[in-house]
Backbone:
């Protein structure tokens, strides 16, 4: 046992350390890349070849429905304007009165100066006789039916033609909704009505008189005051651009400030040639696609004419035939910047 402890075991331990050292030296020389390029290449993953997916032009149905959400607003008050130059003689109604279109609101006394009358006396001399001014009374009518909200004039106040002397609230409601740029392109030929759904309100109803245009300015009295619950923005800071607006039918139990969803049905095309919108460069009237040939050649840019779109599919009205293969995604030019400053490396 003394020999094993003092001679054999130390010798075996030394042998193990020698073997480990030799193995490390061999691994170090093989991993240095001095000449075994093939083995290094064999250990790297194979290159990945990416091919652009293709889709066929196929028959389908495109339903162009634009849905936007905004609020119910009170229609703008109609201004009452003076129709003559003169002084206010009498107020015929008070704020809060309900009037019909054409009802008298106030009277204006109009004083018209008249030319003097020239005559001759018995001796033939001209005689000029001044005439008193002609005094008449004109009544300013209500421009619309509704409730008189203001009548901002006083008796004996001087007014001129066109001066705003009051306002009438028609008591009607509208639904307004801002349109994005994409929405506007999809509504180039908008219908005259829209389907409206008010959250927590009555059953969906048809909103007539649909118009597209710029929203009223902050000072136009559009009724959209306060904070818009849809966007959290003050009503005076209306969204710039274009909005859809339609009239709420009389008697519909909705109120200003309620959220409403407006669905505009702008057309349906059935059994028409379609492509995904991702495959078409452009979305209105004219576009480009990249047609893939059977011979494996490079895709060819091809102009097409377009019809309706639902945001996912677009109708192709010309330039393609059913079954033609096109790139599913519009090619993007390789705009990767070239690093010219580091190409030469460092040193000599």
Residues:
């Amino acid at each position: 046992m003394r020999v094993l402890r003092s001679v054999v075991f130390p010798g075996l331990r030394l042998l193990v350390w020698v073997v480990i050292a030799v193995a490390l030296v061999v691994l170090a020389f093989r991993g240095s890349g001095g000449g075994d390029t093939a083995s290094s290449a064999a250990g790297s993953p194979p290159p990945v070849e990416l091919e652009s997916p293709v889709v066929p032009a196929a028959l389908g149905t495109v339903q162009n429905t634009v849905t936007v959400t905004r609020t119910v607003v009170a229609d703008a008050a109609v201004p009452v304007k003076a129709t003559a130059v003169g002084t206010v003689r009498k107020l015929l109604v008070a704020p809060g009165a309900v009037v019909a279109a054409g009802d008298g609101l106030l009277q204006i006394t109009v004083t018209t100066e008249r030319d003097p009358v020239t005559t001759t006396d018995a001796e033939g001399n001209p005689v000029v006789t001044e005439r008193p001014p002609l005094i008449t009374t004109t009544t300013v009518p209500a421009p619309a039916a509704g409730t008189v909200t203001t009548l901002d004039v006083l008796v004996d106040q001087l007014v001129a033609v066109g001066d705003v002397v009051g306002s009438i609230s028609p008591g009607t409601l509208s639904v307004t909704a801002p349109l994005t740029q994409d929405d506007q392109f999809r509504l180039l030929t908008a219908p005259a009505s829209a389907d409206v759904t008010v959250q927590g309100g009555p059953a969906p109803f048809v909103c007539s008189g649909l118009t597209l245009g710029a929203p009223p300015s902050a000072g136009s009295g559009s009724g959209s005051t306060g904070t818009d619950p849809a966007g959290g923005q003050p009503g005076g800071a209306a969204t710039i651009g274009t909005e859809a607006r339609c009239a709420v039918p009389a008697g519909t139990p909705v109120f200003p400030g309620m959220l409403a969803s407006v669905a505009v049905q702008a057309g349906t095309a059935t059994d028409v040639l379609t492509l995904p919108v991702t495959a078409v460069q452009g979305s209105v009237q004219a576009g480009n696609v990249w047609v893939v040939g059977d011979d494996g050649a490079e895709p060819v840019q091809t102009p097409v004419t377009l019809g309706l779109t639902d945001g996912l599919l677009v109708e192709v009205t010309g330039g393609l035939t059913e079954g033609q293969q096109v790139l599913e995604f519009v090619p993007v030019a390789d705009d990767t910047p070239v690093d010219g400053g580091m190409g030469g490396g460092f040193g000599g």
